[in-house]
Amino acid sequence: MAVTAYWYVNAFETAFNKEIDFLTDAINVSLHTVTYVPNQDTHDFRDDATNQLATANGYTSGGAALGTKTHANTLNVSTLDAADTVWTSSGAGFTARIAVIADVQTAVETTSPLLCWTDFGQNETASGGGTFTIAWNASGIATITPTDATGFP
Predict the structure, then answer these.
(1) What is the 3-state secondary structure (H, E, C) of 59-125?
(2) Alpha-carbon distance 49 to 135, whole Å?
(3) What pLDDT, on a 0 to 100 scale, did the predictor assign at position 39?
(4) Per residue in 86-106, pLDDT tens?
(5) Domain boundaries in the chain?
(6) DSSP state, 56?
(7) Which residue(s) pair with 81 in the sheet?
(8) DSSP state, 41?
(9) What tens digit of pLDDT does each residue of 21-56 get?
């Protein structure tokens, strides 16, 4: 499945406060059911990302670590990227609708900053023995495109 990420607004504040280092911190992607409704204006830490899948059938609560993380700046676009994320299901498998990316360096849900989320657009299921793959966008997981400073006094 190809996906597009949406930023949590507080991700920028936590990054400016040096609470997030995308390349060196532990960054995880967790899977959530359709009943989690992301609020990009108020959700700031992992405890806000409700309805995560429980540990079962090939999924481990807390999610999977992003592998091969990269950051690039090209033509006024800052891009965060990582290798595609894959879970191998077992038993009855599992179903998810939302993926949430967070800095889990502190290992404490109330202080682990959220970065961005993806809504798959529908429930996605991994049957027992199958794989659940998030194929991050070829342009990166998430991008930031600064504009000029014309909005400043």
Answers:
(1) ECCCCEECCCCEEEEECCEEEEECCCEEEECCCCCEEEEEEEEEECCCCCHHHCEEEEEEEEEEEEE
(2) 21
(3) 96
(4) 999 888 889 999 999 999 999
(5) 2-144
(6) B
(7) 70
(8) T
(9) 999 999 999 999 999 999 999 999 999 999 999 999
